[in-house]
């Protein structure tokens, strides 16, 4: 079994051997067991379901909350000659219908689904008719309300069990506390507990948490000293541009990245950094998921993350090549206070949540009793401006509305324009003969795209305009015209988040909101923030603190974090000072003042502390007011 797995690994990925735990996880799946895999960021989680799924007959269904990552994985699989599709918010009902048909009757090996798609009766019913060999649940911590990134849509995953009771589940995550590990298995109704856990210790990472008033100056010095490329995480979009410009002004190649940029710009910036054309990328936490760049030498946080899970994930993007790297968190007292303020704002009162729901109905002009399963592009900033709402509590209100089944909100992702002919080739030919206006465009579409009669294909209006020597708007008008003539379906591109109403609109006074759940989530979040504070304040080894948080006991210091280095420096200083005291006192006995004046290492407080320590250890003796070295040592 293992030799076949290795052959597939070599054939499609070019690797001669698996990373630690990968083949054990794969064997567990091939044995038909439900499996939970805890692998750190960059630990090769996707291999764990892709390799066994290729060995088994049928299709693997992958659930992921990250649409951009789904699209990347589908694209990478297709490059390897493996058939894969993704279904996510923003696709039309007909697109989804065609994609699902291909999964039932075609040769598709991987179907990637956003968890929100399981709200759809159409999707669930089609999955029932698929020959499924594995359910892979990525970012599985999202199913647990005890996790740092709870996603209500994940609670619907048990419906997959009802459709295919005998198909094993593989749950994957990089960060989970012991309570979350148990909760994942309970929520997914695991048949027997099978957990593979790689140590959270990253031997090559030198974690640091520095109280720093001059963050920008310290950042510059660290970048110059550490060399190599890196990521700098900040809290908001404005800071990404400001910090990036500061670095450029000081001669460092840098760029900024956040979710508010259009998809093409984000892709260009990410590629420039990946190709080392840009040394430093300054980003919000929107950057980094699914990016496997091995040579990142530093990850700097200029703001305090709101959980140790988030920090561990982001810091773990450093040093994937196994060489020494530096995750550094810089903070001030004001950062701690701001984190607490944001925490409070993230749990708005019930009447605020009801008000947001009411405004949403008006914003999209939905009548009472209507709106069920309707999709809309959603501009959060515009919505908040129109109704004079603060963004952070509004975002939280949307999450709570989602949890209670009123709506579903997807991440912002670029979806290109799509096109499909709705008539057969002969009817289209008749139309071309009669229409000189549309004939050139139809010929261009047919020459450029295969399968355009069978499924939706992504189209580029700018390329059409260039080849036909006309304007972009003229191409859009013609594509729209073909749709109005009922000859084709044209779906314009979008990169806005998609909001779906799951229920018909009700009066906000009749809106059910689970208040006890909100209170419980608030308590969980408070615990997570206090854990971050404890990490900042600890005097123990940073790696040990992180491991303990994730339920892994390890008594050995890492030896490379800032606190371990401080202790090593202090121990080396004490050893030198002790040797100097011995040298002075072996010569002749001294009074305390004489001894302190003769010592050259450390300040007076350090010297007195060392003398007291040696007295306690009986290495020096106090006789008639003079200190002597005990010749027994």
TrEMBL record:
Q: What is its EC number?
A: 5.6.2.4
Output the SMART domains linked to this UniProt entry: DEXDc, HELICc
- Pfam families linked: DEAD, Helicase_C, RecQ_Zn_bind
Q: Which SUPFAM superfamilies match?
A: P-loop containing nucleoside triphosphate hydrolases
Catalytic activity as recorded in UniProt: Couples ATP hydrolysis with the unwinding of duplex DNA by translocating in the 3'-5' direction
What Gene3D superfamilies would the database entry show? P-loop containing nucleotide triphosphate hydrolases (3.40.50.300), Winged helix-like DNA-binding domain superfamily/Winged helix DNA-binding domain (1.10.10.10)
Q: Known NCBIfam families for this protein?
A: recQ_fam
Q: Which family does it belong to?
A: Belongs to the helicase family. RecQ subfamily.
What name is this protein filed under? ATP-dependent DNA helicase RecQ
What species is this protein from?
Sphingobacterium oryzagri
């Amino acid at each position: 079994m293992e030799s076949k797995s290795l052959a597939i690994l070599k054939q499609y990925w070019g690797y001669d051997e698996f990373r630690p735990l990968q083949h054990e996880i794969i064997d567990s799946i091939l044995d038909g067991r439900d499996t939970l895999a805890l692998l750190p960021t960059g630990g090769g989680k996707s291999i764990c379901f892709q390799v066994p799924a290729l060995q088994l007959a049928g299709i693997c269904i992958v659930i992921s909350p990250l649409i951009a990552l789904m699209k990347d994985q589908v694209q990478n699989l297709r490059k390897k000659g493996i058939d894969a599709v993704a279904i996510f918010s923003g696709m039309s009902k007909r697109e989804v219908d065609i994609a699902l048909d291909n999964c039932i009757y075609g040769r598709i090996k991987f179907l990637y689904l956003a968890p929100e798609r399981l709200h759809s009766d159409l999707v669930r019913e089609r999955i029932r008719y698929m020959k499924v060999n594995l359910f892979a649940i990525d970012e599985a911590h999202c199913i647990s309300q005890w996790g740092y990134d709870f996603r209500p849509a994940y609670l619907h995953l048990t419906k997959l069990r009802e459709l295919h009771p005998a198909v094993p589940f593989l749950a994957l995550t990089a960060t989970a506390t012991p309570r979350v590990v148990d909760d994942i298995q309970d929520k997914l109704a695991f048949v027997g507990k099978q957990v593979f856990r790689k140590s959270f210790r990253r031997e090559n990472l030198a974690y640091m948490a520095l109280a720093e008033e001059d963050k920008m100056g310290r950042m510059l010095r660290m970048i110059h000293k550490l060399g190599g490329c890196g990521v700098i995480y900040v809290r908001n979009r404005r800071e990404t541009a400001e910090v990036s410009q500061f670095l450029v002004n000081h001669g460092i190649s840098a760029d900024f990245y956040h979710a508010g940029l259009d998809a093409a710009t984000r892709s260009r910036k990410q590629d420039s950094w990946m190709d080392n054309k840009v040394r430093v990328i300054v980003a919000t936490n929107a950057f980094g998921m699914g990016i496997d760049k091995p040579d990142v030498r530093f990850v700097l946080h200029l703001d305090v993350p709101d959980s140790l899970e988030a920090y561990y994930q982001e810091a773990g993007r450093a040093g994937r090549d196994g060489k020494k790297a530096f995750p550094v968190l810089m903070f001030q007292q004001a950062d701690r206070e701001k984190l607490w303020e944001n925490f409070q704002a993230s749990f708005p009162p019930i009447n605020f949540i009801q008000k947001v729901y009411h405004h949403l109905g008006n914003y999209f002009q939905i009548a009472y009793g209507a709106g069920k399963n309707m999709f809309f592009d959603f501009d959060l900033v515009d919505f908040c401006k129109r109704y004079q709402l603060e963004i952070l509590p509004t975002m939280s209100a949307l999450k709570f509305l989602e949890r209670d089944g009123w709506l579903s909100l997807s991440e912002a992702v670029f979806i290109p324009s799509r096109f499909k002919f709705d008539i057969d080739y002969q009817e289209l030919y008749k139309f071309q003969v009669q229409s000189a206006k549309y004939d050139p465009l139809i010929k261009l579409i047919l020459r450029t795209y295969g399968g355009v009669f069978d499924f939706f294909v992504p189209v580029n209006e700018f390329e059409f305009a260039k080849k036909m020597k006309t304007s972009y708007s003229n191409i859009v008008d013609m594509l729209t015209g073909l749709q109005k003539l009922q000859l084709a379906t044209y779906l314009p591109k979008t990169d806005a988040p998609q909001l779906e109403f799951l229920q018909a609109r009700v009066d906000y006074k009749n809106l059910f909101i689970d208040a006890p759940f909100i209170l419980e989530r608030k308590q969980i979040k408070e615990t997570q923030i206090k854990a971050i504070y404890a990490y900042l304040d600890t005097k123990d080894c940073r790696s040990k603190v992180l491991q303990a948080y994730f339920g892994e006991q390890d008594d050995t210091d890492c030896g490379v974090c800032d606190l371990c280095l401080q202790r090593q420096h202090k121990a080396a200083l004490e050893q030198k000072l002790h040797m100097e005291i011995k040298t002075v006192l072996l010569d002749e006995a001294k009074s305390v003042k004489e001894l302190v004046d003769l010592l050259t290492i450390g300040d007076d407080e350090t010297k007195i502390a060392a003398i007291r320590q040696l007295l306690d250890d009986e290495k020096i003796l106090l006789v008639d007011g003079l200190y002597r070295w005990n010749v027994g040592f």
